[in-house]
Amino acid sequence: MRKVLLAFGLLVSWCLGGALHAAVPPTSNQADIAKAEDYLNGVTTLKARFMQVAPDGSTVEGTVYMSRPGRMRLEYDPPSPILVVANGTFLIYHDKQLEQTNYLDLDDTPAGILLQPQVKLNGDDLKVLRVSHQPGILDITVTKRNDSSDGKLTLVFTERPFELRQWQVVDKQGQLTTVSLFDAETGVKLDRSLFKFKDPKYGTMGYSLDNNN
Fold first, then answer.
1. Which of 56, 70, 106, 161 lies at a CB distance of 3.0 to 4.6 Å from 88, suitable for a disulfide?
2. Residues 103-153: pLDDT tens digits?
């Protein structure tokens, strides 16, 4: 049975041009936010297929592995040369074809939100801009609390069953990237080697840079 549980949008950028209108969620929305947080915090490990839709409409598929907190791996299907690994400290973006690797602070990426030890959509670091309902669908849009111009993303949930189906990120040119997951398995045992990255230039970046796991 095809089951979409989680989605990761544009993982390597938070940028968004133009103003974002800050809003404090009314009391009636607090239950929706709490339900979304409980759902996200209930996912510890995950393996799934994903499909990413780029702003030009092109699509690419692959496999994602996640182990909260802090660890994730996205393997894009050929011919895409991209590999993305979150090792607890960095989000590592590797282009095999160009032999280029970028290291981003995990906390500065949208992926860092879902990989936090405790996801809090409306807390010290994030604030909810909008909660909206469509038939069978719940949308929650969030941004960074201290710098709303730094980006926004929208989490799209189905309500029956309650699942996060899409993660949408808009870049500073106003272009939208959407990623959805399917055929997901949660609570699976994942090999820790999935979250290690062997940099051709600098050796192996381990499960975490600051521990020996």
1. 70
2. 999 887 878 888 999 999 988 888 898 999 999 999 998 887 876 555 678
Classify residue 22 as exposed, middle or buried by CB count within 10 Å of its CB (0-12, 13-18, 19+): exposed
Report in angstroms the alpha-carbon separations of 212 from 3, 60, 137, 208, 209.
35, 34, 42, 7, 8
Range 27-185: architecture per CATH: Clam (2.50)
Q: What is the pTM of this model?
A: 0.79
Q: What is the C-alpha separation between 205 and 172, in angstroms, rounded? A: 30
What is the spatial distance between Cα 140 and Cα 203, in angstroms, rounded to a whole number? 40
Of 83, 99, 81, the C-alpha closest to 91 is: 83
Among 74, 84, 82, smallest CA distance to 99 is for 82
The pair of three-digit structure tokens given for residue 37, joined into one six-digit string: 């947080």
